[in-house]
Amino acid sequence: MRGGTSALTPNDFGVEPLSTWIGRVVGVESAPLPNALAAWECRNDRLAWLGLNADSFIDAVHAARERHGAARIAVVVGTSTSSIGATEDAYRALDADGRFPADNRNPLVHTPHSLGMFVREALALEGPCVTIATACSSSAKVFAAAERMLRLGIVDAALVGGVDSLCGSVLFGFNALQLVSPEPCRPFDAERSGISIGEAAGFALLERDDCGDGSSPRLLGYGESSDAHHMSTPHPEGLGAERALDDALARAGIDAAAVDHINLHGTASAKNDEVEAKLIARRFPASAHASSTKGITGHTLGAAGVVEAVATLLAIEHGFRPGTVNTRVLDPVCGPQLRTAGTAGAVRVALSNSFGFGGNNCVLVFGDADATQRR
């Protein structure tokens, strides 16, 4: 993000790769699951395992399990396709009786809840286990669901996250909707031509304020809405997105003027970017720094919410506001908040937007360690 470079590469995924660019995680093919977890073997769970092992995250979860007990930690994960790639492989290799091949006849994998069950098993957790599948807002809404569990005393900690891996269903499905760009995506560009699909795994551990050391960033609020305007097109006036924004700011106890940075949904599709740009232009002061990180990662679909929440938390931690990579000339509908270049500067309060198909909207508000006292 500091270098303003894109990780997108020409698509080489699948038997007959679609002519596009993708955000592919290196090393998934060469990283089988440990023998103890071999029953969960598939690309999506491999990707999840890589994510769980990043940044000493597993150690943090084990420490929380010691503090609270395995039954008091929830697993709340988001995904849009789960392990459907394994199911695609099975359909391509049906036996003479039309059944899945014997080596791919595994109910642990061929279910939308595979990711949640895998994470719970891999980390020996025993609390509630929930999978949220609301398209591209899935792993943003996990923060909201986990906060409610914590506030109601159902659990003492929550592992939240999201994983979506590359598969034919999303690549060719989005292409059928004429949403896939033949070049690296250019969010909010005047000549943007569609999305670049990526894959990702991301996780976070949520606990109440009194459980931490006081130095970690805070989830200050969240807002959710469902405008149900259209199956794949946002409301032309952004009514659902704005309702989620209002809800998030109200829960956080702040107004728009307090926001330093906004990680935009910014997919580089024509209508999504137009609607979101107009919303930002009319609601935030010119001093706010707004950008999309999808030019770096691609659109990671069900994992986008948590990946961009992490990008937002990094902005707070490092005092750096990312730019909008690949974008050349901003669409005239963009206000002064939209930035193509990254800049150094304190980030005390930041938003992360996630807007999914069907009008599933979620806005998260994060703040630095002192944010609660300031508000």
Write a structural description.
There is one protein chain. The chain is α/β, with parallel strands linked by helices and 375 residues long. The protein has a single domain (9-374), classed as Thiolase/Chalcone synthase (Peroxisomal Thiolase, Chain A, domain 1), CATH 3.40.47. Helix content is 30%, strand content 18%. It contains eleven helices and 14 strands. The protein has helices at 43-52, 57-68, 84-92, 114-122, 138-151, 168-176, 239-252, 270-283, 294-297, 304-318, 371-374; strands at residues 9-10, 21-23, 73-78, 129-132, 157-164, 197-198, 200-207, 218-226, 261-263, 289-291, 320-321, 343-344, 349-356, 360-367. The protein has a five-stranded mixed sheet with strand order 8-14-13-9-10. A four-stranded mixed sheet has the order 4-3-5-7, with helices on both faces. Strands 1-2-6 form a three-stranded mixed sheet, with no helix packed on it. A hairpin with a 3-residue loop joins β13 (349-356) and β14 (360-367). α1 (43-52) packs across α4 and α5 packs across α10. The longest helix is centred in the last third of the chain and has 15 residues, at 304-318. The radius of gyration is 20 Å and the shape is globular. It starts with 8 loop residues before the first strand and ends with a helix. The relative contact order is 0.17. The mean pLDDT is 95.
